[in-house]
Amino acid sequence: MNIAISSTSEKPIYQQLFEQISAQILKGELETGYCLPPIRQAAQELRISVITVKKAWEDLERRGLIHTITGKGCFVADLSPDQRLQIRNEMILKQMAGDASYYKSFGLTIEEAIELLKKVYPNE
Amino acid sequence: MLALDVRNLNKKYEKFQLKDVSLQLEKGYIMGFIGANGAGKTTTIKSILNMVHIDGGEVYVLGKNMADHELELKQGIGYALGGIDFYTRSKVKTLTGVIKKFYAHWDDAAYSDYLRRFKLDENKKIAELSIGMKVKYSLALALSHGAKLLILDEPTSGLDPVARDDLLEIFQQLVSDGEISILFSTHITSDLEKCADFITFIENGQIVRSAEKEEFKESYLLLNGTASQLNEVKERLISYKTNSFGFTGLIHAGDYDPSSGIQTATPNLEEIMIYFAKKEDLHV
Question: Does residue A58 sit in the same domain as residue A90?
Fold first, then answer.
């Protein structure tokens, strides 16, 4: 599991954690049954507060991406391709909604926005 | 289980008073205690430790009443108060020899272990220790008598950034097994942004809010708007600053009307403290 936390980002740290882990789960980099590190261990290693990690883990669970087995730990849930797609699209749309209203505030049409997006979209 | 439960502390001085100070710290977590100079942080800490006589209120440590079980409970509390110094001319070794006699559960092996970990030289005189070293020495003493609750008054003030970071890392290691809890006061809020689980904010002897850190920050909003927007929200702002482009101000999240269209952001701890301090100026 890869995590890079930015303490200067506008985004709360628990959200950064949530987003980075979600992406890795949805892309299949973290496989079904993968065991996430214990909360207190992750907090100590990442040098963030225990509650921050707890919050991120809770958000992942609420989203159905992981499940907790009491006394054993948190594991990546078994997701069907449809579920992955649905969760991914919901998350992306939420982000896009904010971006879209920003474009609109400059008077961009959707076509113009797409043209500009193509210019900055990273190619592998 | 609560490591520390403070209920309605009251202490009246001629020109200052603590009013109904309450805070709860769950076992295994770090709480940052913030407030401007003179807000009552040290008085609260001294009241918790029964070092000043309180006029009212109760303190429970790990479920037991402090007033009834002070000696027993203090075996399990480690504290370091700024300004109260050790006798400076003796060696660390000599002073430890005196202090350890007060503690029934003193553990020599643990003590040597912490000295090594904190790179403390037992043969140095107290006067020769840097501020950071003294804090670490206090911690070593506290941890060697098996303290489960650490109460630290401004442990990071006077430390350089590297020493502060070092100390904060130690705090996080200490709470990682879920047994030790830490309450520390500071006015260096950046120390808390990462490592604290809970924040308690005191102002003028009263607790403004005591909550989980993100919840604490998210209960306020920083507004950024034009002069005409200021007139709409002025009454509801905690305080504000104006400039020729408009204003920035702090508001309780619940008092903000999203239909006003004013730009908002979540404040950091420092901004919350600054706008609260400004509120004082407005009313004086």
Answer: no
Tokens of residue B281, six digits: 């100026």
The residues near B201 (Cβ < 8 Å, ≥ 6 apart) are B34, B35, B207, B208, B209, B210, B216, B272, B273, B276
In terms of domains, do A71 and A87 share one?
no
A68 and A61 in contact (C-beta within 8 Å)? Answer: yes
Q: Is A54 part of any domain?
A: yes
pLDDT, residue B281, reads: 65
- Regarding whether A66 and A91 lie in a shared domain, the answer is no
- Whether A6 shows a pLDDT value over 90: the answer reads no
Residue A19 lies in domain: 13-76
The β-bridge partners of B33 are B185, B200
User: What is the domain count for chain A?
Assistant: 2
Q: How many residues does chain A have?
A: 124
Tell me the percentage of chain B whose pLDDT exceeds 90.
67
Instruction: Write out chain B residues lying below 8 Å of A10, CB-based.
Output: 265
Q: Are residues A89 and A63 in the same domain?
A: no
Residues A36 and A88 in one domain: no
Torsion angle, alpha carbons of A93, A95, A96, A98, to 10: 130
How near does any CA of chain B get to the CA of A68, in Å? 19
pLDDT at A47: 92
A–B interface: beta-carbon pairs under 8 A: 47
Closest by Cα among B201, B207, B203, B206 to B268: B201
Verify whether the Cβ–Cβ distance B175 to A48 is below 8 Å.
Answer: no
Closest CA to A10 of B48, B143, B266: B266
Is B177 within 8 Å of A40 when comparing Cβ atoms? yes
Q: Are A70 and A56 found together in one domain? A: yes
Do A90 and A67 belong to one domain?
no
A50 → closest Cβ in B197, B265, B266: B197
B194, closest residue in chain A (CA to CA)? A48
Whole-number Å distance between alpha carbons of A34 and A37: 10
Full-model pTM: 0.87
Beta strands in chain A (DSSP E): 66-69, 73-76
For residue A22, being part of any structural domain is answered with: yes
- Same domain? For A89 and A55 the reply is no
